Amino acid sequence: MQKTQFQKTLGYHIVLELHDCDATLLNDMQQIKTIMCEAACKAKAMIVTEHFHYFLPFGVSGVVIIQESHLTIHTWPEHGYAAIDVFTCNSKLALQAAVQYITQQFNAGNVTQHYLHRG
Amino acid sequence: MQKTQFQKTLGYHIVLELHDCDATLLNDMQQIKTIMCEAACKAKAMIVTEHFHYFLPFGVSGVVIIQESHLTIHTWPEHGYAAIDVFTCNSKLALQAAVQYITQQFNAGNVTQHYLHRG
């Protein structure tokens, strides 16, 4: 299932781990929503809907449903960490543009990404 | 990132690949919504919201946002395939009960699941 690079497949899935992020930002639901929706646009995806949820005492979960699948995020401000998934059925989307944008916006000091091919 | 079994971590993520499924069911958005929401209940998760989308000419995408993170599904009826992700920040959820239920409901002939620990 796991590949270092994408090959022809049904689903293209990037598992993105952002550590050492801006903790304040990781707790700001509105900002996170803006970033994730903008990331979908950077990928040239078409947004169908989005839903974001703030957790007490801290943390945000959210999903952006795109015509071409989804982006999700879950944040742990207390750990400076965000778990992000970008999944698409369309190999023509600019996934790396989305990943680069997200990484920059969260000012992540430590980033790992893994490519999964699905199907 | 990838482990054969869960260890203590922030996020618990199951990547589930269902092949050789019932193609008619994979194209039935209402049924898929029912199955995914019921799977969340089997896991003892609390549903926050859900969104499902039908694609022409075929295929369904959907997400169930739970207090403890999310479940997503994307189906390719023409390939008898569904890509499912179950993600939670709560180690006490009964994820395997959800996975077993989903697998049975889709009558999958070929199943793989991978455990990712996130964070």
Describe the overall structure.
- The structure is a homodimer of 119-residue chains.
- Chain A has helices spanning 23-26, 29-42, 95-105, and strands spanning 2-3, 11-19, 47-54, 60-66, 69-76, 81-88, 110-118.
- The first copy, chain A, contains 3 helices and 7 strands; from the N terminus they run E-E-H-H-E-E-E-E-H-E.
- The mean pLDDT of chain A is 92.
- Chain A is globular.
- Chain A is 24% helix and 43% strand.
- A 7-stranded antiparallel β-sheet of chain A has the order 1-7-2-6-5-4-3, with helices on one face.
- With 119 residues, chain A is an alpha+beta fold.
- Chains A and B meet through strand 2, strand 3, strand 4, strand 5 and strand 6 of A and strand 2, strand 3, strand 4, strand 5 and strand 6 of B.
Instruction: Name the poorly predicted regions of chain A.
Output: none
Distance between the termini of chain A: 8 Å
Biggest sheet descriptor of chain A: 7 strands, antiparallel
Helix content of chain A: 10-25%
Placed side by side, the strands forming the largest sheet of chain A appear as 1-7-2-6-5-4-3
Query: What structural class do helix, strand and pairing data of chain A support?
Result: alpha+beta
Globally, the shape of chain A reads globular
- The tally of beta strands of chain A, per DSSP, is 7
Number of helices of chain A: 3
The proportion of strand residues of chain A reads 35-45%
Largest interface: A-B, 33 and 33 residues
- Compute the CA-based radius of gyration of chain A: 14 Å
Q: Which H/E pattern describes the elements of chain A?
A: EEHHEEEEHE
Mean pLDDT of chain A: 92
Oligomer: homodimer
